[in-house]
Design goal:
The complex is a heterodimer. By secondary structure, chain A is of the alpha+beta class. Chain A folds into three domains: about 20-25 and about 460-600, Aldehyde Oxidoreductase, domain 4 (2-Layer Sandwich); about 35-130 and about 195-245 and about 250-280, Aldehyde Oxidoreductase, domain 3; about 290-450 and about 610-755, Aldehyde Oxidoreductase, domain 4 (2-Layer Sandwich), CATH 3.30.365.10. Helices cover about 30% and strands about 25% of the residues of chain A. In chain A, the strands form eight sheets. A seven-stranded mixed beta sheet of chain A has the order 3-5-1-12-9-10-11, sandwiched between helices. In chain A, strands 7-15-14-13-8 form a five-stranded mixed beta sheet. In chain A, strand 26 (about 615-625) and strand 27 form a beta hairpin. In chain A, helix 9 (about 320-330) packs parallel to helix 10 and helix 10 runs parallel beside helix 18 (about 725-735). Chain B has two domains: about 5-80, Ubiquitin-like (UB roll); about 90-160, [2Fe-2S]-binding domain (DNA polymerase, domain 1, Orthogonal Bundle), CATH 1.10.150.120. In chain B, helix 2 crosses helix 5 (about 145-160). Chain B is an alpha+beta fold. The chains are: A alpha+beta, B alpha+beta. The interface between A and B is large, with 55 and 53 residues. The structure holds FE2/S2 (inorganic) cluster (2 copies). One FE2/S2 (inorganic) cluster binds near residues 45 and 60 of chain B.
């Protein structure tokens, strides 16, 4: 063992599941079928707000091939939601009871021998609605005398979140320049490529197995048990491969419940597959938000204070809205040193389809407002926008009092690098009509510390077993939904144990076989939290292996021991190592055959209210606008980001590149068009996600920092980048045309009508 | 509804199946033949996840009726590599270049790419973007997919395939 210890950190290792995915053998929930399987469809409300007077299922029930029909009357009226910590915020039932609150609200479900039969029968269900007045925007919902969606919330204000620190009155009094702007953002769809599917089977004793396209198997297990009045351990949730989630698959969904309930009723497996039209029309979406932001500066550009007031159009239910409401406040105070801050976030019920978590979780809205305002202020102050940011930029150790402390932070370096990459200074000097370079920045969390789910387990757990053939097994409920966390966790374990990635078997995605627990994929938490749990387990196993090596080699106690290249050896004498598997065999023998395994855990503690770690980044959009048609063309994107250590650069790049696609759509082309609560564009033909030809060339660079709380120094990548693209393009468009677009998306219509003076 | 018994060649095998006239090729492949590699992303011809080759040309199988495939040749993602263990150069390049994330668009994307390289072995970047213009990917931003197709083109040229 003379060669140097090989490291896997920073290596462009290909994904573990790539082979299965390129050959079509990777199984998604929709690819599964079971003998005797029935097909389910949901019956949804065609009206935005109504009392259900009567439901007649007799014709549907009599239809040949129909096996089961359920309505809200047939199942317990249990309110559920991810916010178990505050039961009052759990405002949804799996099927409507008495009242429907949005177009698409689930009213009933049918299971039949095939899908066509189920659809025909669904049409035969006769629901008598007594229409109620409805509200479709925040202002109407809050107006005096507005109709109420939920009786316990008279003014439709579901909740208010506040952040206060510093003396804001004094801050504004001391400011030389104050501006106030109002911004609005729109609803967009996650548009994951795999529509939701759920397949359930009930054992004879009533225990449920549910295969489902989810990013949070543990939440689904708990909430399904709650709504079916089962014990948690009676529900097993299995997550096959998932075709993207982006925040849209992190709650219990009614069809998961219906599949399980009807499987138990009929004794036959039941599968629900959503149509793309259902996904667009009634699926979760990013919250439309109205944000009023007031900010004060000294003449030299230093920020004195800031006030942000946000109103989120939550749609008919809370979902993940309370978290988004808080995070908008947090991100209103991120990036820059804000000595005094006041935030008021209001979550308002309307009769629109409910919004939910989506890549960025409140940050894209907060930073569209915040970053656009920074650019406007820079102009007014006569300071270059990058200079203005450098003047106020957060650095390591900065605090949002009572909320967050900034750990590793390469923000200043990101700004300087993006200035150089984009040739910023020269391009500013050489501005031409119809062209512009715009800038915006971001920061994002690496997992949330909040326990709104009120879990009684650690946030992440991982079990590691090692074998005498020199291999290992990792089991964890951390959920890879396409982002590639499976590989990253295996890479982390292989690095710890000094093995190859191919030496590790991964067991994942099954609540019955993986250790309790893992909160799933959201808030960019997996690498940091599950990664730390994997390391914890590895360290526990290594301790036993190292003790054995010390004994066998009769080492002086001062020796450091290391794993590498499939061996375990004293660090100072790498050639004197023992093969990994041999040491496992010895430990096992010394324990009279007991297998060598350990479980590791991670729960963030004592790190504020938000996250253990924050990523940072800056982006410049080089943009042209056709001054006749108003068409925006992004010529090139420049991105510089600080994600701590890049564990796998290929995976990081993939996250960033994908994020730019989604953000470009958010800025320019994607919008769920609404009319009286009805989503008008329900196909990819009418809802325009960028295709390959729409994507601008893009260059990215990394600022390496080391994040103490992350595994091998890593933190978030690819979710924060959902934020800067829209404000950067808005800034570029303003420079190109003069139009300051404060309401997303930035469409050619808005630009044209501005240019023609309408 | 009358069912029709049709014959077709799927990935080199002659298959005889009874189909309803409104059955789509996608349903035939996935539900009847259990070739689930081909994906359903929209069912309306707008996403490309269901792309297969019909007599060598890419089609959206969700918009193609099964009966239209009568006496014709279908190639799906399961049928493009010549042996069970080796990958087609396009598949290989997708793995190596990190062109796969959630993988749901991947089978359709690969079928469009295979067709491109058969008809245009040395495509420009804009020809590649155009060729996969009907395949939506929500994860990758297409960058690594395009790189993979370029790599596969070079590999094929190098190997004289
Ligand atoms: S499923 Fe056929 S094009 Fe989308
Ligand atoms: S890899 Fe997920 S849609 Fe393309």
């Amino acid at each position: 063992m003379s060669e140097q210890r090989k490291t896997l950190i920073g290596k462009r290792v290909p994904r573990l599941d790539a082979h299965a995915k390129v050959t079509g053998t990777a199984r998604y929930t929709g690819d599964l079928s079971l003998p005797g399987m029935l097909y389910g469809v949901m019956v949804r409300s065609p009206v935005a707000h109504a009392h259900i007077k009567h439901i007649d299922v007799s014709k549907a029930r009599a239809f040949p091939g129909v096996k089961c029909i359920i309505t809200g009357n047939d199942v317990p009226a249990i309110r559920y939601g991810n916010w178990r910590l505050v039961p009052e915020l759990q405002d949804e039932t799996v099927l409507a009871h008495d009242c429907v609150r949005f177009i698409g609200d689930e009213v009933a479900a049918v299971a039949a021998i095939d899908e066509a039969t189920a659809r025909k029968a669904a049409e035969l269900i006769d629901v008598e609605y007594e229409p109620l007045p409805a509200v479709f925007n925040v202002d109407d919902a809050m107006a005096e005398g507005a109709p109420t969606l939920h009786s316990h919330r008279e003014n439709n204000l579901s909740l208010e979140r506040k952040i206060d620190y510093g003396d804001l009155e004094k801050a504004f009094a001391e400011a030389d320049y104050i501006r106030e702007d109002t911004f609005t953002t729109h609803a967009v769809s996650h548009a994951y490529m795999e529509p939701c599917v759920a397949l359930a089977q009930a054992d004879a004793d009533g225990r449920i197995t549910l295969w489902t396209s989810t990013q949070t198997p543990y939440y689904v297990q708990c909430l399904l048990a709650q709504t079916m009045e089962l014990r948690e351990n009676d529900v097993r949730v299995i997550k096959p491969h998932v075709g993207g989630g982006f925040g849209g698959k992190m709650e219990l969904r009614p069809w998961e419940f219906c599949a399980a309930w009807m499987a138990r009723e009929t004794g036959q497996p039941v599968k629900f597959t959503l149509t793309r039209a259902e996904e667009f029309a009634s699926g979760r979406r990013r919250h439309p938000v109205k944000i009023t932001s007031k900010i004060g500066f000294k003449k030299d550009g230093s920020i004195t204070g800031k006030e942000v007031i946000a109103h989120l159009d939550g749609g008919a239910y809370n979902g993940m809205g309370p978290t988004a409401t808080f995070l908008i406040g947090n991100f209103g105070a991120m990036l820059y040193r804000v000595p005094a801050y006041r935030y008021r976030g209001n979550y308002i019920y309307t009769n629109n389809p409910p919004a939910g978590a989506m890549r960025g979780f409140g940050a894209p809205q907060a930073l569209f407002a915040g970053e656009t305002q920074m650019n406007l202020a820079a102009d007014a102050l006569g300071i270059d926008p990058i200079e203005l940011r450098l003047k106020n930029a957060m650095v390591e150790g900065d605090k949002i009092p009572g909320v967050a402390t900034i750990g590793s932070c390469g923000f200043i370096e990101c700004l300087e690098k993006v200035r150089e990459l984009s040739n910023w200074d020269e391009r500013q000097a050489d501005a031409r009509p119809g062209e512009g370079l715009g800038i915006a920045c971001y920061s994002f969390i690496s997992g949330g510390v909040f326990n709104w789910f009120n879990t009684q387990y650690t946030f992440s757990a991982a079990e590691v077993r090692v074998f005498d053939d020199g291999t290992a097994q990792l089991s964890t409920l951390a959920a890879d939904i396409g982002q590639g966390s499976d590989l990253i966790l295996v890479q982390i374990l292989a690095e710890e144990l000094g093995l190859e990635v191919s030496d590790i078997r991964l067991v994942t995605g099954d609540t019955a076989t993986c250790p309790q627990s893992d909160l799933g994929t959201w808030g960019s938490r997996v690498t940091l939290m599950a990664g730390n749990a994997v390391r914890d387990a590895a360290h526990k196993v290594k301790e036993q292996l190292f003790d054995m090596v010390s004994l066998k080699l009769n080492l002086n106690v001062i020796h450091e021991i290391e794993c590498g290249n499939g061996h375990i050896y004293p660090k100072s004498k790498p050639a004197h190592g023992l093969p990994f598997g041999d040491v496992v065999a010895m430990v096992q023998r010394s324990n009279r055959g007991k297998p060598l395994k350990a479980t590791g855990y991670y729960t963030p503690r004592d790190c504020g209210l938000v996250s253990p770690a924050f990523s940072f980044g800056a982006q410049v959009a080089d943009t042209s606008v056709d001054l006749e048609t108003g068409m925006v063309q992004v010529n090139k994107m420049f991105t510089v980001h600080d994600c701590g250590t890049e564990l796998n650069p290929m995976a990081v790049e993939g996250q960033l590149e994908g994020s730019i696609q989604m953000s470009l759509g958010y800025a320019l082309s994607e919008e769920l068009l609404m009319e009286e609560g009805k989503t008008l564009n329900t196909s990819f033909l009418d809802y325009k996600v960028p295709v390959a030809e729409d994507m601008p060339p893009s260059v990215s660079e990394t600022i390496e920092t080391y994040e103490e709380t992350g595994p091998f120094g890593a933190k978030e990548a690819g979710e924060g980048l959902a934020c800067p693209t829209a404000p950067a393009i808005a800034d570029a468009v303003r420079k190109a045309t003069g139009l300051c677009c404060k309401d997303l998306p930035i469409t050619s219509d808005k630009i044209r009508s501005y240019l023609s003076g309408d | 509804m009358n069912t029709h018994v049709i014959e077709l060649i799927v990935n080199g095998d002659l298959r005889e199946v009874a189909v309803r006239p409104n059955l789509t090729l996608l349903q035939l492949l996935r539900d009847h033949l259990r070739l689930t590699g081909t994906k359903h992303g929209c069912g309306t011809g707008d996403c490309g996840a269901c792309t297969v080759l019909l007599d060598g040309r890419p089609v959206n199988s969700c918009l193609t009726l099964a009966v239209e495939a009568r006496n014709r040749t279908i190639t799906t993602i399961e049928g493009i590599s010549t042996s069970g263990t080796t990958l087609h150069p396009v598949q290989q390049a997708f793995v190596e270049k990190g062109a796969v994330q959630c993988g749901y668009c991947t089978p359709g994307m690969i079928m469009s790419s295979v067709h491109l390289l058969r008809t245009n072995p040395d495509p420009t970047e804009s020809e590649i973007r155009h060729a996969i213009g009907g395949n939506i990917c929500r994860c990758t931003g297409y960058t690594k997919i395009i790189e993979a197709i370029e790599t596969a083109a070079r590999a094929k040229k190098g190997s004289g395939q």
